[in-house]
Automatic annotation (TrEMBL), chains A, B, C:
Record-level GO cellular component terms: endosome membrane; plasma membrane
Domain Ferric oxidoreductase: 253-387
Family the entry assigns: Belongs to the STEAP family.
UniProt subcellular location: Endosome membrane
Membrane topology: Multi-pass membrane protein
Matching PANTHER family: DUDULIN-RELATED, METALLOREDUCTASE STEAP4
Cofactor(s) the record lists: heme b; FAD
Protein name as catalogued: Metalloreductase STEAP4
Catalytic reaction(s) noted: 2 Fe(2+) + NADP(+) + H(+) = 2 Fe(3+) + NADPH; 2 Cu(+) + NADP(+) + H(+) = 2 Cu(2+) + NADPH
UniProt keyword terms in alphabetical order: Copper, Endosome, FAD, Flavoprotein, Ion transport, Iron, Iron transport, Membrane, Metal-binding, Oxidoreductase, Transmembrane, Transmembrane helix, Transport
One function term, GO molecular function aspect: metal ion binding
Membrane-traversing stretches: 252-275, 296-321, 352-378, 390-407, 419-443
């Protein structure tokens, strides 16, 4: 029966001793901040705690109810030892090897940078104390979570180690502290676990930089074509358009380009496989890296599409728009001229909006299915159906939306200010290319060959064949 | 120490051999595409791999660093054997029974169709080699994931088998490959695991078909009543309304009907229990199936409601709407007539919009709580509170929104074109019925009886009672 | 081989008996509703079931295929016993202690209220039968889920107990029934598990009450300032504004205040740590509780911000707005006056909208990352980056949005109706305070001290120091 429960429930009769196990004793090496936080939490969860310290008599305040001893004495009193020491001071543990033999050592350390040392801290520890069972654990939690228990991004304790029993012991402690333990395999995974808390969206960097670059480029482009041109050519100050109108041109362009960049690497990979006649050769590194950040590209593109939606929907409440509409209506009323209703125009604009809405709807669906809990619940056939079939549908709808927006503007010379292309035209290049290439891959003869290659078939040239027989 | 880590970190000093276990040797039967992919991945994760082949000397290129032997020799060298062979060729394994005795056989096979064979592949394998421990695993992953490691819908390895030790061994391998293993129980779950990768949204089929049917029906209905009628009766071409205006009539109607179809089966079930006087009789099959797809019905309805929101919000930027507003204003200005401000109208339309927004807001909340990770974090009391209480609130708000939309239109004969009802009226039938039935169930006397029945009480007729005593 | 599979697949040849284990026999104490439901489900999953009953010959209808015996006889026939009895009747189990020795007892009971008894039901059971291995499990599932298998909020079986083997046995049964078992540690966690199904959003209560209070207060405030003032002062009936215009004033105000209430406690905590010179003193209770409901505050604020967005986007389709715009245009046309285009106004309003949209966009991102599955996939460094850096960005953008909305209104006396401040000004107080305090904390000298304190450093007064040495 743990301390915690005792304090809550008033036991009126003495409990049967068999049913109330004596609280387990755990050992912590290190009386620094981490050791103190962890000790506090262990005490609260019903453990007894003993600290191992270099200077047991002058190590600063420790949680009430804990003991402090020399490292050797502390190690011998418990079967599980938390190592809350910086890696730089690990070396003294070598001298404790006899006392630590057979103990479970929990390495909770992190480094300040990646690749600071040739081997992971936990592997170094295992090398210093070969007779102990080192388990890497708890290092992915924040000190706050170690002190206060699980919260949002601190629910899961990843652990790894070579001894299944040692991992089981650590798992039970983690569970008792309120965390969910996730086994990550043998101690060779320690480096990965040590890198985890250091990372800050590594797989988002490239897509974010790309998005930033595209946004800046196109923003400058449209500012020059709209605001600067308007000022130079007609002397009008329309700089206020920089807040809403121009971002609402840039965001959909960036979104469409990034969406097509999601699907371009897959198409390139298919052509590469066709050209090589095998799927067993590795793709070039740049293609591999590109394919691995497709999800991030797609989600960023969805973000920009959402901004485009919001920027579009506030159009009618903008002062500028209301002013222009009112001015038009007044001048119509004055001239007593009634403009003719243009059915083609109504068809075109309504189709344009409808494509945009449907495209955005399917896109949102793609976004929702890429939430971890949703994609985990799907079979990969379902997942690839959504990401491939519905993905291409999204690309088609959004591209068609842009073509309808353009309509016959490309015939009108006034759109080519300073001999530059309107920005929307530039955004159409990439998606059009992707869709044409994709259609080529769907041709029966191409599709058949590709399917065979993906099922393991290899095109063999006679000379190539002889080489292979030498290799295997 | 695994190969992978060695290649990354440059070990400057020789490692203690005790700390560096010799890589485990695994065996793969079958040198086809799947076998090659799996072997590659196992090698990369630090295993040694040996292939078993019918023709060990002519089996095509295999990953560098692997060996290939006869089946018998390969089986004896490892304690865990992956069976990467099509089920049709399993029968030869019967002759290997002596060599496979006590080994863990991992069945990774899938069939091309459901119910192709009377028993699951893994159960067939167990029957052929009764002395081995068959574990069904890895079959739910794509070949791509087997070769390249976990990705979105390929993180979890489901496994089942009769031997706990065998499952533990496979779990460790899966973990080392980077996957999360999920135990699905004894080998009798193998069929379920084999069907899983074949499924393509089975529980979404019925709701999707229903949504499609309703959409087409109502779309045709409103096209006839609006566009065709307008053309026939007044000779006007308003066909452009087919892109935005008419979908924006159809989507909310389909959404409201599907939302009420979510709550209708629960009400029917309650009345059935009241009528039967017991909860221990099974519901008819159609009702069971209906109740099982309520979540899908609700999510599709939410999708159509979202489309309705977007279609509504773009109304003021449509060319047609702007044209009409301008034309009205111009004619008002010309006639110098100022229309009176109608406070009732302002109240009615604002209430109508407010109900719609609030209804959509609660509806979104329902959708969010049905995300797997959110619903897992709720207790079932919380979940049923949201899905039932907030669900009926959504239904009420959306129905009220539609009634306010209709207002007194039902009094105006011009709305009954060609003696047909306006579409919105048709959409009100089902939700109104559901809410009336639900209110009946809330009557104290009905509610009391229903609660007792759901707590296990049974209404017993004298004759019925005598029958039961014979049965038990 | 389980019953279920047998009925599905037609086995043509007799199965090897070694491969087909005899179905396991489980025992259920109690023939009430819960016992019946559970028994049915166990039967369907391939177990044999025996009931223990006080009156084995008159205990009402039980699932076909089960046996019923006296408690003692039933207990001896199985190694795992489900206790489907109310806690009030547990006492008779004491007399069965000899028969239950070494058995696994699964306590599935729940209480009607929290804290009804001094100890958890499962702990009471363990005390009554000290020789048995009590496991608390299945109590978090609804009776419906026990009868029909896993569904949305009923996928996970939480269990706890002092014996690892007993928990393993229960885990296997749960898995076979289709659930995912989650180990919650020793039996001292039983009370937590027993409280779980009773809770109804406990951590949402305070934020919900706060939101309700704020909404009502500000709604009354703006109704008085707008509608009542308009009626009293100018005799106009603008009560229709209560449906859309006024909620659209209240929601953003409440949202902004609640968002700043998310960040205020963190700032207060930092100043408290600075003042105390240590991080090892507990925060006052009110601050702890406040910090624990920050997530809920933020999500509610996001909800109100979303309502504000929707209410704003429908502005141009409102009857009142269209009427006013048309009236303005008509009067302009009549007077033949053309108002000048105001570039400052265009800049200001466009900036105002842009800030709002960007703020809402970042806010949505915060909301998405607080979904359990997303936050689980983040390292805590990533999570705290998003929640802190992007959180303050959201607060800044939304506050700036409000300042731009206000602009120079504060100079205009007509806005101070009845000597009251416009509501938007009131909403600016708290976020402005939070941001100023936060900026103070970012001053290099303050930041340095705080960082040191958070790394475990303590400011020590000489007298304080002597006290400490006495304590430890």
């Amino acid at each position: 029966m743990s301390k915690e429960v005792k304090s809550e429930s008033v036991s009126l009769c003495p409990l049967d001793t068999a049913a109330a196990p004596v609280p387990e004793l755990l050992c912590i090496f290190g009386t620094g901040d981490l050791g103190r936080s962890l000790g506090q939490r262990l005490l609260q969860s019903g453990y007894r705690v003993v600290y191992g310290s270099r200077r047991p008599h002058s190590c600063g305040p420790l949680p009430q109810g804990t003991q402090v001893m020399s490292h050797a004495a502390a190690a011998q009193s418990a079967s599980l030892v938390f190592i809350c020491i910086h890696r730089e001071h690990y070396d003294f543990l070598e001298t404790l090897a006899p006392q630590l033999k057979g103990k479970v050592l929990v390495d909770v350390s992190n480094n300040l940078k990646k690749n600071l040392y040739p081997e992971a801290n936990a592997e170094y520890l295992q090398r210093l104390v070969p007779g102990a069972h080192v388990v890497k654990a708890f290092n992915t939690l924040s000190a706050w979570a170690l002190q206060n228990g699980p919260s949002d991004a601190n629910r899961q304790v990843y652990l790894c180690g070579n001894s299944a029993d040692a991992k089981q012991a650590v798992t039970e402690t983690a569970t008792k502290l309120g965390f969910t333990a996730l086994d990550r395999g043998s101690l060779s995974a320690a480096r990965e676990l040590e890198d985890f808390p250091l990372q800050l969206f590594p797989e988002w960097r490239l897509p974010l930089r790309l998005a930033l670059g595209l946004n800046i480029t196109f923003y400058v482009y449209v500012v020059v074509r709209d605001v600067v041109y308007g000022y130079v050519d007609q002397g009008k100050d329309i700089s206020f358009r920089m807040m809403v109108s121009l971002p609402n041109k840039v965001f959909p362009i960036v979104s469409l380009i990034m969406l097509s960049l999601c699907y371009l690497p897959g198409v390139i990979a298919a052509f590469l496989q066709l050209y090589r006649g095998t799927k067993y050769k590795r793709f070039p590194d740049w293609l591999d890296r590109w394919m691995l950040c497709r999800k991030q590209l797609g989600l960023l593109a969805l973000g920009f599409a959402s901004l485009h939606v919001l920027y579009t929907l506030i159009i009618p409440i903008r002062y500028y728009v209301r002013f222009r509409i009112a001015a038009n209506t007044v001048s119509e009323a004055k001239l007593n001229k009634t403009s003719e209703f243009d059915t083609t125009m109504a068809w075109r604009t309504d189709s344009y909006y409808a494509m945009g809405i449907l495209g955005y709807g399917v896109y949102l669906l793609l976004g929702i299915t890429s939430l971890p809990s949703v994609s985990n619940a799907l079979s990969w056939r379902e997942f690839s159906f959504i990401q491939s079939k519905l993905g291409y549908l999204t690309l088609f709808l959004c591209t068609f939306h842009t073509y309808l927006y353009g309509w016959n503007k490309f015939l009108n010379p006034s759109y080519y200010k300073w001999y530059t292309l309107p920005a929307y035209m530039l955004s159409l290049v990439l998606p059009s290319v992707v869709m044409v290439l994709r259609l080529l891959l769907l041709l029966p003869c191409v599709d058949r060959t590709l399917t065979r290659i993906r099922q393991g078939w290899e095109r063999t040239d006679p000379e190539d064949d002889s080489k292979k027989s030498l290799l295997t």
